Automatic annotation (TrEMBL):
Organism annotation: Catenulispora acidiphila (strain DSM 44928 / JCM 14897 / NBRC 102108 / NRRL B-24433 / ID139908)
Compartments reported by the entry: Endomembrane system
Entry's transmembrane regions: 12-32, 52-73, 85-101, 142-167
The name this protein goes by in its record: Fatty acid hydroxylase
GO biological process assignments: lipid biosynthetic process; membrane lipid metabolic process
Gene Ontology MF: a single term: glyceryl-ether monooxygenase activity
A cellular component term, taken from the record's GO annotations: membrane
Length: 289
């Protein structure tokens, strides 16, 4: 979603900083290489950047839908919360709580996964991976509505969303191993998020947090980094074509729905977990195509 606060497009404002830090990461890899790290490749990075630019353009429409929905629900709220330090702090934590469940749903509901899978499609892990974003993100709007319903105004919600998104940029790196123990316990860090991007069996569907990792600890989806991470999907798509990256899972859902025997199976292919089939009713782990 394009994040516009008081007429200022925060997504666009952040682009020079994204470029700067990617350049610094690239230079650090050049002068201080680590054979274990994946680093950058031209095709993969170009695809990630293309997906990021496409996300800004395509999500103009989705963003308008989201803004209208949040504003409409806020108008129905029984009370309105004014801007204050306490209000901002509560919202910052509350937003990450709902982000956790949004992110978890993106891995557990196939039609949502069809959008989110874009972000997991790279077999590399660097700052450019953070920019590999969906072109079809309207399904996540529903997770903002409870914040509006309890009285937080739209500008506070979208500003908090921007801060949450900006925080997540720097954790997409292999350059940082682990951090001070209290930070690792409370906050989402590069180590925790590498696990989330792993296709290793033990890493699937773990570490959903945005800024904080405490919700994963509370709801038993936390996994510490141990074995080397294999990035990407359990079945990689084998293409750098942005259109295929954006739409391949939607196409796979359409094929499964067309071939399904009965409406129960059709709904299952759309609303169950990725990898579900009538012959295997227990949903498979989420990072799959």
């Amino acid at each position: 979603m394009r994040l516009v606060i008081d007429g200022i497009d925060l997504t666009t404002l952040a682009i020079p900083f994204y470029v700067l830090f990617m350049a610094l990461e690239l230079l650090s890899l050049r002068f201080f290489p680590d054979p274990v790290e994946q680093g950058y490749t031209v095709k993969d990075t170009a695809t990630s950047l293309t997906m990021g630019i496409g996300s800004i353009v395509c999500n103009l429409g989705w963003g308008l839908v989201t803004v209208a929905a949040v504003a409409g629900v806020h108008a129905l709220a029984p009370w309105h919360i004014a801007s204050s330090l306490t209000g901002w702090l509560v919202l910052f934590v509350a937003y990450d709580f709902f982000y956790y469940w949004e992110h978890r749903a993106n891995h557990r509901v196939r039609i949502l996964w069809a959008s989110h899978v874009v972000h997991h499609s790279s077999r590399h892990y660097n700052l450019s991976t953070a920019l590999r974003q969906t072109w079809t993100g309207v399904g996540n709007t529903i997770f903002l509505l409870p914040l509006a319903l309890v009285g937080f105004p739209s500008y506070m919600i979208f500003a908090t969303a921007a801060m949450n998104l900006l925080y997540q940029f720097w954790i997409h790196t292999e350059r940082i191993a682990t951090m001070w123990r209290p930070i690792e316990f409370v906050m989402n860090t590069p180590s925790h998020h590498r696990v989330h991007h792993g296709s290793n069996q033990g890493y699937l569907d773990k570490n959903y947090g945005g800024v904080f990792i405490v919700f994963d600890r509370l709801f038993r989806s936390f996994e510490p980094e141990g074995e080397p991470v294999e990035y990407g999907l359990t079945k990689n798509i084998g293409t750098f074509n942005p259109l295929r990256v954006a739409a391949h899972e939607y196409a796979a859902i359409a094929r499964d729905v067309r071939g399904a025997a009965g409406w129960r199976a059709r709904f299952g292919y759309v609303l169950r977990g990725p990898g579900w089939s009538p012959a295997s009713p227990v949903p498979a782990t989420a990072v799959t195509v």
